[in-house]
Design goal:
Order of helices and strands: EEEHEEHEHHHHEHEHEEHH
Number of strands: 10
Radius of gyration: 17 Å
CATH topology of the largest domain: Rossmann fold
Helix content: 25-40%
Shape: globular
Number of domains: 2
CATH class of the largest domain: Alpha Beta
Structural class: alpha/beta
Strand content: 25-35%
Bound molecules: adenosine-5'-triphosphate
CATH architecture of the largest domain: 3-Layer(aba) Sandwich
Length: 238
């Protein structure tokens, strides 16, 4: 039994000569929500891309439930149950809602399990059930975000990486999405949540890290971070 879903040790990532991650170390315990905060260009998306194998780390170690995945290919990492929902809700825009979900579960050989998972996604997102035949690209931004998360849920991930799920959404929809993230977590999904919206992320998360220009500058329980003056001034606009 490994209680840590994810461990990063001194991870460094470059884009050519740009040193985007300068030794990032963090942990995501199994069953928790951990948030990674930081302003534009801090390296949050780069951290997620490095974890999911879309970019190769140049140094450091990434462990997924005790297994070193630093050198693994992205498709292998996905098959281990580490699922990345990227920024900008990349769904299949020309396909219907239900077809998007079916594709999310295409690795499932058991047809009845796939149907069960789709039903579960529909229970969680009744709006998607009502729109199951609608073409993805015609959904609202919030519905597309729900579909992106729903598609990720099709594989019953062991760790979900969520990149700015609140981006560009109206406050009420953001509340909806956050409620669903909380529900997923209470059903047992471990989550690493990247957010620019520190207020909502810290409400949801158990623990948080703050990234600035490729380095972690602060970490702590989310209740502590919420009260920390450096956080309230820099990220909560107070
Ligand atoms: P945002 O919230 O704006 O998405 P972020 O914290 O996710 O910011 P990253 O997208 O990880 O930040 O970017 C970190 C740094 O790496 C930035 O300076 C960015 O310009 C740079 N960067 C990101 N992608 C590339 C790329 N493909 N080529 C070169 N530099 C890149």
């Amino acid at each position: 039994m490994n209680d840590l879903a994810l461990v990063l040790q001194n991870v460094e990532t470059f884009y050519g000569k740009i040193h985007a991650l300068k030794g990032v170390s963090l942990e995501v315990p199994k069953g928790k929500i951990v948030t990674l905060l930081g302003s534009n260009g801090a390296g949050k998306t780069t951290t997620l891309k490095t974890i999911s194998g879309l970019i190769q780390a140049s140094a450091g170690k990434i462990e997924f439930y005790g297994r070193d995945i630093s050198k693994e290919k992205a498709h292998k990492i996905v098959s281990m149950g580490l699922i990345h929902v990227p920024e900008g809700r990349r769904i299949f825009k020309d396909l219907a809602v239900k077809e998007n979900l079916e594709l999310g579960g295409f690795t499932l050989k058991d047809e009845s399990l796939r149907r069960k998972r789709i039903e579960h996604v529909f229970e969680m997102f009744p709006r998607l059930k009502d729109r199951q035949k609608q073409i993805g690209g015609t959904l609202s931004g919030g519905e597309q975000q729900m579909l992106a998360i729903g598609r990720a849920m099709m594989t019953d991930p062991k760790l979900l990486l969520l990149d700015e799920p609140s981006m560009g959404l109206a406050p009420l929809i953001v509340q909806d999405i956050m409620r669903i993230i909380k529900q997923l977590n209470s059903e047992g999904t471990t989550i690493l949540l990247v957010e620019q919206n520190a207020k909502i992320a810290l409400k949801l998360a158990d623990y948080g890290y703050v990234l600035e220009t490729g380095e972690l500058v602060m970490e702590g329980d989310s209740t502590e971070l919420r009260q920390d003056e450096r956080i309230t001034k820099a990220y909560l606009g107070e």
